Amino acid sequence: EVQLVESGGGLVQPGGSLRLSCAASGFTFINYGMTWVRQAPGRGLECVASISGSGDTAYYGDSVKGRFTISRDNSKNTLYLQMNSLRAEDTAIYYCGKTAPYYLDCWGQGTLVTVSS
Amino acid sequence: EIVMTQSPATLSVSPGERATLSCRASQSVSSKLAWYQQRRGQAPRLLMYGVSTRASGTPARFSGSGSGTEFTLTISSLQSEDFAVYYCQQYNNWPRTFGQGTKVEIK
Q1: Residue B2: which of B29, B23, B22, B21 has the closest Cα?
Q2: What is the pLDDT of residues B72-90, one digit of tens each?
């Protein structure tokens, strides 16, 4: 059974940093791209970043480019999102998703990030 | 960026009735269109991809159609578990973009 479990969310001050993790199991991790999608409270879905299976190609949404970095450790079956220079508008639930190969065929339950002073 | 526009924002339907949800792209996305269902308090889950291919576990009462810029998700006979928010997503271009969602509520 495919499982994705996010962690690392919490309360952070504006300008601060946070690193999210997504532990994957139940599939051959290196064979799949992975994506972070966020959902602000009461709002819709936004693709934040995607990374290829090998980790050599990454894409970012315009709203996070230059501030967020997606990465993966295929030896640990884990996806990461390093978030720097956080803003109030980054407050959201962050979901990781298995990308097969372009749409998300499995989602984690999400981790809440709150940016507030 | 391709803008995805869904209509209506809210659809009020009685159980057993048919629901038709629309999704329009600001430019052609070919057949690179997926639909997701999000129940209250849950993560989204994949319903359809490639416009009309049902994902594993998606009941046959869900069907998708369209191409280019106009797409439709139809639920032939609404069941209680179908009352949820539905999102379309294009994956033809980066950034992948979602519509704003259609909420299907009980009439």
Answers
A1: B29
A2: 999 999 999 999 999 999 9
